[in-house]
Amino acid sequence: MEKEALLLGFTILMLSIFFDSEILNLVGLLRSNFLNILMMVITSVAFLILVYILYAYLLNKPNKVLLLVLTGLVAYIIGSVLKLIVMRERPDIANFVLSDYSFPSNHAMLSFSPLAMMNHEFPNMKWVFLIIALLVIFSRVYFGVHYLSDVIGGGLIGYGIGWAMFNKIRLREILGWKISGKRN
């Protein structure tokens, strides 16, 4: 399932690059007062913080909460560095002015990076986690501050970071290694 989802994500990313402006214009047609308010809440940093607090509450284990926070920090740092490397300008139709670059979307990276761990820990809730992440990335396109390719790329990179960090820790647990890498 994961491989198929990643392949679909990469396919959509490649297609979206060619149609980024048209997609922004189409999404712009959806704007309404109700959606403006809803998307303003979802796109806020406070919403992302609340999502992380909810995930931490669900995990309820200090080592998993620490991994959640570290994954978010690593995703944010890598996203910020990639923005400086790629230097893609934000869309001209943005509803508010942001001073940094567009690719990758840090919101997308932060909303997708915890998914590997959350889906493993709570498989019955994986659709809830995915819907939350999709709403966050949609809000960024809705307000025109990112192209679709920015949020898809950010989501893929963020998920990859979360998957790699979570599976490295799991591998160490399976092998019985301490953080130092030595056997117990």
Description of the structure:
It is a single chain. This protein is an all-alpha fold. The chain contains eight helices and no strands. The protein has helices spanning 2-28, 33-43, 45-59, 62-86, 106-112, 115-121, 126-142, 148-175. Helix 4 runs antiparallel to helix 5 (106-112) and helix 5 (106-112) runs parallel beside helix 8. The longest helix is centred in the last third of the chain and has 28 residues, at 148-175. The radius of gyration is 17 Å and the shape is globular. Mean pLDDT is 83; it is low at 179-184.
Record keyword descriptors for this entry.
single chain, 184 residues, mainly alpha, disordered C terminus
Strand content: under 5%
Mean pLDDT: 83
The structural class is mainly alpha
Rg over CA atoms: 17 Å
Largest sheet: none
Shape: globular
CA distance, first residue to last residue: 34 Å
pLDDT < 50 stretches? 179-184
- State the helix count: 8
Number of strands: 0
Helix coverage percent of residues? over 70%
Write the element-wise H/E pattern from the N-terminal end onward: HHHHHHHH
What topology emerges from the helices and strands here?
Layout: H1 2-28, H2 33-43, H3 45-59, H4 62-86, H5 106-112, H6 115-121, H7 126-142, H8 148-175
Short description:
It is built from 8 helices and no strands. With 184 residues, it is an all-alpha fold. The protein is globular, with a radius of gyration of 17 Å.
